[in-house]
Amino acid sequence: MTDLTDQSVTPVGGCPVVRTRLPDGHEAWVVLAHDAAKRALQDPRLSKDMVAALAGDPDVVDEGLPGAATARHMLAMDPPDHTRLRRLVARAFVPSRVAAPPSGAGLPRRSPGPRVR
Q: Residue 82: pLDDT above 80?
């Protein structure tokens, strides 16, 4: 097991996935390479669904951390829910929309500066 508190997690024998124990005692896996992370996120055997994890083990979230109340969001969803929401918001994140100021933002043309009377 690797200790995450020393901030020096390195691949063991070239493997980009390392088993560790979190400070609260739960076991976890740390993925250290982009390609491995991409494969893990696409693997249907693995889940990001915190609601399901909490249903299986209510103590999976350390005391003091957000739990079920904040666990239901797009980044913590598995397909098909994540895919459905991603399709709904995808047009808002195309490069031309991200680069443009929001419509109706009404950005000032110049700094108002101090008022002189």
A: yes
Same domain for 56 and 40: no
| Interatomic CA distance for residues 22 and 3, integer angstroms | 8
Tell me: do 40 and 62 sit in the same domain.
Answer: no
Q: Which domain holds residue 58?
A: 47-97
> Do residues 1 and 19 make contact, with C-beta atoms less than 8 angstroms apart?
yes
pLDDT of residue 105 exceeding 70: no
64 vs 45: which has the higher pLDDT:
45
How many residues are given for the chain? 117
Q: Using DSSP, state whether 83 is helix, strand or coil.
A: helix
Q: Same structural domain for residues 54 and 40?
A: no
**Residue 89, pLDDT score:** 92
Count the neighbouring beta carbons within 10 Å of the beta carbon of residue 77: 20
Does 24 reside within a domain?
yes
Asked whether residue 60 falls in the same domain as residue 71, the answer is: yes
pLDDT for the residue 90: 92
